[in-house]
Specification:
This protein is α+β, with helices and mostly antiparallel strands. It has helices spanning 16-41, 93-103, 144-150, 181-185; strands at residues 55-59, 68-71, 77-80, 84-87, 114-119, 122-128, 134-138, 164-170, 173-179, 200-203.
Length: 208
């Protein structure tokens, strides 16, 4: 049995059936692209959260004389021209931009504001079955797996990767997360758990 061509020959013309087949072919070609796009948009994204001691550069395209470099104070506050003090820690740079633009709306002809993080420090505490427990400092946010590697890696004899615990302080309360990093290493999970500054990572001991 001969294979039928998707397109009609030039001698037969380009009839209604050929047109329908062309549309169907186009749909089939676009389906993988649409699926990939949907998969990408559903992937978790990392959010950079401003914290105390971050160095910021705040610029005003419409009023460059107000451009300033400053550091977020330990109490999470910054002092900006005209407005004065505003809480910056705990927000993303874009959230801070939006808040500043709202506050400058009646102060400047152009209230456009840009916030750039010049320098940031992150501190993590690792304890338990790692080669070098203690404090890890980084210039960027790390995933829990990256932090363990920075601490020399897990003790392969006594460490347990299936029940790694992260303790995070929020105000006067603590949050507890239990992670299966063995599944991440085996490729069964592909989402990274991104640490926040001052998180405590505890690697439990293997029970024999």
């Amino acid at each position: 049995m001969k294979n039928r061509s998707l397109f009609a020959s030039s001698s037969q013309g380009f009839g209604p059936n050929s047109f329908l087949r062309l549309i169907w072919f186009a749909v089939l070609c676009l389906l993988p692209v649409a699926a990939a796009s949907a998969q990408s948009s559903g992937a978790p994204s990392e959010k950079f959260i401003l914290q105390a001691e971050d160095q910021l550069r705040i610029t005003f395209p419409g009023a460059p004389e107000l451009d300033t470099d400053l550091q977020i104070r330990r109490d999470g506050v910054i002092a900006v021209p005209i407005i004065g003090e505003i809480v910056a820690a705990g927000k993303t740079p874009s959230e801070l931009e939006t808040e500043l633009e709202e506050k400058y709306e009646n102060q400047l002809v152009s209230n456009e504001v840009m916030v750039v993080v010049v320098e940031s420090h992150f501190t993590y505490y690792l304890e338990g079955e790692v080669q070098s427990p203690g404090i890890i400092r980084s210039f960027r946010q790390l995933s829990v797996l990256e932090a363990i590697i920075a601490a020399g890696g897990i003790n392969k004899v006594t460490g347990k990767m299936k029940s790694v615990v992260v303790i995070r302080r929020k105000g006067d309360k603590y949050q507890r997360f239990e992670l299966d990093l063995a599944a991440v290493i085996d490729g069964k999970k592909d989402s990274a758990f991104v640490l926040e500054s001052y998180d405590i990572v505890s690697i439990p001991q293997r029970v024999w």
